[in-house]
Amino acid sequence: MSTTPANMASLTGERKNGVAALELRNVHTFYGHIHAIKGVSLRVDQGEIVTLIGANGAGKTTTLRTISGIQQPREGQVLLNGQRIDRLPPHRIVEMGICQSPEGRRIFSRMSVQENLEMGAFARRDAAVAIRADLERTLELFPRLKERLRQRGGTLSGGEQQMLAMGRALMSRPRILLLDEPSMGLAPMLVETIFNTIVEINRQGVAVLLVEQNALMALNVAHRGYVLETGRIVLEDEAHALQRNEQVQKAYLGIE
Fold first, then answer.
1. Less packed terminus of the chain by CB within 10 Å, N or C?
2. What tens digit of pLDDT does each residue of 59-93 get?
3. Cβ-contact 20, 44 below 8 angstroms
């Protein structure tokens, strides 16, 4: 495996004035009467890759949806650089620098690859030349997409669609990128490509909050990690320490 573990490298940024780039404080989120997130507190510092691991139904996707503004917490706070964002609409949160690449990719299947990428910049107010430059940078990260710019998104392979979903998110020029199950359904070779790209995105200055069923790969590239069970954080530590934790090894890494 050629992925360079992020926890072996120096951070690209420092925690500024003690304020996390992204922070959740005692967040409770409900779906009707279902208490999905139960007092979750976590942080992502500038320059970090942080992973959130847990079983299906643990509340990982709900946590990302709460950060993105798709679900509003009933209690607690979500802060971006110390500023509360938990009552803002999703498009405003994107404008402030948080963008999500969702589980299942959710690309626009009838639009071309280029149109999908350009949709990622819908909330930007800067000059067209800056958006064009970011499109070129995104295509450098995902050269397969450059070969398929006129192709409809729905005709791409699963791996290419995942690249497109991530590229679309990057076109918003995020400071924090939320990734929900980027390796789901992909062949092992493509999984490695996706994770190498996550590391490169982080090296370019974007903080990443990564939700991923492949806990071993996630912990290989992350600086820190949290373990979520039935809506509660039960463990948090440096990623390399979580890899050595017996509870994590048995439950998520398949090591007896």
1. C
2. 999 999 999 999 999 999 999 999 999 999 999 99
3. yes
User: Any residues with CB less than 8 A from the CB of 74 and at least 6 apart, and which?
Assistant: 28, 29, 30
What values do phi and psi take at 25, rounded to 5? Answer: -120, 105
The sign of the dihedral angle between the CA atoms of 155, 61, 209, 225 is negative
Angle at 144 between CA 140 and CA 148, to 5 degrees: 110
Cα 21 to Cα 43: distance, rounded to the nearest angstrom:
8
Structural domains of the chain, ranges and CATH numbers in brackets: 1-11+20-97+177-256 (3.40.50.300), 106-173 (no CATH)
The structure tokens listed for 54 are 């847990």
Q: Which residues pair with 19 in a beta bridge?
A: 16
Please check whether residue 159 is in contact with residue 190, taking contact to mean a CB–CB distance below 8 angstroms: yes
Please give the Cα distance from 31 to 59 (Å, whole number): 11
Q: Under DSSP, is residue 6 helix (H, G, I), strand (E, B) or coil? A: helix
Nearest by Cα to 141 from 203, 217, 209, 218: 203
Phi, psi (degrees; rounded to nearest 5) at 91: -65, -30
Q: Are 226 and 52 in contact (CB under 8 A)?
A: yes
Residue 104: pLDDT over 70: no
129 CB contacts (<8 Å, ≥6 apart)? none
Cβ contact 182:212 at 8 Å: yes
- Whole-model pTM over 0.90: no
